[in-house]
Design goal:
By secondary structure, the protein is of the alpha+beta class. It folds into 4 domains: 130 residues, Protein of unknown function DUF952 (ADP-ribosylation fold, Alpha-Beta Barrel), CATH 3.20.170.20; 144 residues, Protein tyrosine phosphatase superfamily (Protein-Tyrosine Phosphatase, Chain A), CATH 3.90.190.10; 202 residues, Methylamine Dehydrogenase, Chain H (7 Propeller), CATH 2.130.10.10; 54 residues, no CATH class. The chain is built from 14 helices and 30 strands. Strand 15 and strand 16 form a beta hairpin.
């Protein structure tokens, strides 16, 4: 059928990834067997199959050539990368059979010499070059006029849609969204043909440029995309994710959305998306990226990407870089220690920044308890003393016996200020560390000291402490850079981990195994196998002390933040930074 494009002529050996369309009578197409190759009725006279590269002109083409042909028509959408039945050439306008082409098309500028995509071959009935199912065409039965083409768009969730570039440029397709605001997330390939502009004014836009071909596909910035989706939905917008066909790039993003927000595995997400968007077919490189994010064990479906958004503030570019910094060969994480579940609890969401914390902090009495009233009043009236350097919370206004009455247990094993405390996930044990250069294991119910850790080993203030996943080991980190692993049962030192030379600012255990992270003022993040003492990775990339960090609850990602003002997401297996903001 007749065709037209306003794009510049592509390389003769590569027609590029632009979608091509062909208008065909439904009865003709459906009469073909699965292994047949379709040729239009005028193929023998014309010598080629007419295609259309610009979807905005399909109706114009149809109404010029085919109003006299009765019956339903459909539109075939073709992927030029897998169209191998013949060469596609962009050539000057040619007649369709005996009917001359139009002299002027509405979508073509006066100064342009339009070129037409001509396929020197047929279209296979079941070829991979066919994208999705044929597109319906509406006609006026009385005049034969072609009224509209239903370009593909699908609702994945109540507020999330996936579409092709043809759909978002079609006014008739987008008319159903006239009563809502739309956020546009476009995934462009650096080889894409020039597209028609959006047929709507988006409330916000996020455009991702990447490579997408058989030999190299750059990674999609998943966190950036999902942050944009989540923020837009929270603001009350509908979100449309679109790419050339919507089959690979756009489909990959909505699949990732299903994985993160619904807790589905990759397979579950792909199947769920395919039920609504049959053309979903992520390319191998994107599938590989999604498999790394796979949440196969599932998680709480209330988990949302806002936690990651708050940490990364919409981090998007993938950055490389692996740390070295130690002489030992890195050990390898066991497969069962890196689970396929990624979840960020709502409790992890950072509170919104306050421009004036003092104005927001108000001590309002909410009880008739005299002691509590005095505490609130004392805290509010201590502002002058705080400015003079006096540290007070109002507790010093209460007699000591009142404090003891309020505490279920009081532990008095330290001889100096206590800097950190952690509870066991499996028992009533607590561990605390302090400026007295030791850590104490004690019972939270009885207050009894079980073990004093580090009386001869620890040489500086214990700044951080933490139990492992099953409560059998405790880790302590001190201001001299030392990280030590202790046996909970007998209080013995298991390993003094080597590496950091400056303050340990935080530690984080792997949620399913005995792997531990530590962030240091030496600007590095260290990871060890706690049971052997072997250093597994050193993550390098921050330019100031690493002030906080944590394993994701699956153990498959690490998030860190630094005094340099950046937050980073790391792959614990290879030590590479995946995202930075």
């Amino acid at each position: 059928m007749a065709s037209l494009t306003t794009n510049k002529k592509p390389n003769s050996n590569d027609v590029g990834p632009s979608p091509l369309f062909h208008l065909v009578p439904r009865a003709v197409w459906e009469s073909l067997q699965s292994n047949d190759i379709y040729y239009p009725a005028t193929y023998e006279k014309d010598g080629f199959t007419h295609l259309t590269a610009d979807p905005a002109l399909l109706l114009e083409v149809a109404n010029h050539f085919y109003t006299g042909i009765e019956g339903d028509f459909i539109v075939l959408e073709l992927d030029t990368r897998t169209l191998n039945t013949g060469e596609v050439k962009y050539e000057p306008a040619a007649p369709v059979g005996d009917q001359e082409t139009k002299e002027k098309y509405d979508g073509v500028k006066e100064t342009e010499e339009p070129l037409f995509p001509h396929l020197y071959g047929g279209i296979p009935k079941t070829g991979k070059c066919l994208v999705g199912t044929p597109l319906p065409v509406a006609r006026d039965s009385s005049t034969g006029q072609f009224l509209s083409i239903s370009y593909p768009i699908a609702q994945i969730t109540p507020d999330l849609y996936v579409a092709s570039s043809a759909a978002v440029s079609s006014k008739s397709t987008m008319k159903d969204f006239s009563n809502c605001t739309i956020a546009s997330l476009e995934l462009k390939s650096n080889n894409d043909a020039e597209r028609r502009p959006l047929s709507f004014e988006p409330s916000s836009s996020y455009v991702v440029d990447l490579s997408d071909d058989d030999t190299l596909s750059t990674e999609i910035p998943v966190l950036g995309c999902l942050t944009f989706i989540d923020d837009s939905i929270q603001q009350g917008h509908k979100v449309i994710v679109h790419s050339t066909h919507g089959a690979s790039r756009a489909a990959s993003v909505v699949i990732a959305h299903m994985m993160f927000v619904n807790g589905f595995s990759l397979q579950q997400s792909l199947e769920a998306v395919k039920q609504r968007w049959s053309r979903a077919e992520p390319r191998p490189n994107f599938l590989s990226q999604l498999s790394e994010l796979d949440q196969g064990d599932g998680h709480d479906p209330t988990v949302a990407m806002r936690a990651v958004a708050d940490i990364l503030n919409g981090g998007n570019g993938a950055t490389g870089g692996s740390g070295t910094g130690n002489d030992k060969a890195p050990a390898t994480l066991a497969d069962d220690e890196i689970e396929n579940v990624i979840e960020f609890d709502d409790d992890d969401v950072a509170p919104e920044d306050s421009d004036n914390e003092e104005e927001q902090t108000e001590f309002q009495p909410i009880t008739n308890d005299d002691d509590a009233m005095r505490m609130a009043a004392a805290a509010k009236n201590d502002e002058d003393e705080m400015e003079e350097g006096a540290a007070t919370t109002g507790l010093d206004q209460l007699p000591e016996e009142k404090i003891e009455e309020r505490a279920k247990t009081i532990f008095r094993g330290h001889t100096d200020a206590v800097c950190c405390i952690a509870s066991s996930p499996t028992s009533t044990l607590m561990v605390s560390g302090g400026c007295d250069e030791r850590a104490c294991l004690w019972d939270a119910v009885t207050g009894e000291t079980k073990h004093v850790l580090g009386e001869t080993n620890i040489k500086e203030t214990v700044a951080v402490c933490s139990f492992n996943f099953d409560g059998t080991l405790v880790a302590t980190g001190a201001l001299d850079g030392s990280v030590m692993i202790w046996n909970v049962d007998d209080g013995s030192l298991v390993h003094a981990l080597e590496g950091p030379e400056e303050d340990i600012n935080w530690i984080s255990w792997h949620p399913k195994g005995n792997v531990i992270l530590a962030g240091s003022s030496d600007m590095l993040i260290w990871m060890w196998m706690a049971t052997t003492g072997d250093c597994m990775q050193v993550f390098s990339g921050h330019s100031a002390p690493v002030t906080c960090g944590k394993f994701a609850p699956n153990g498959k990602l690490i998030v860190t933040a630094s005094a340099d003002g950046t937050a980073k997401v790391w792959n614990p297996k290879n030590g590479k930074c995946r995202y930075s903001k």
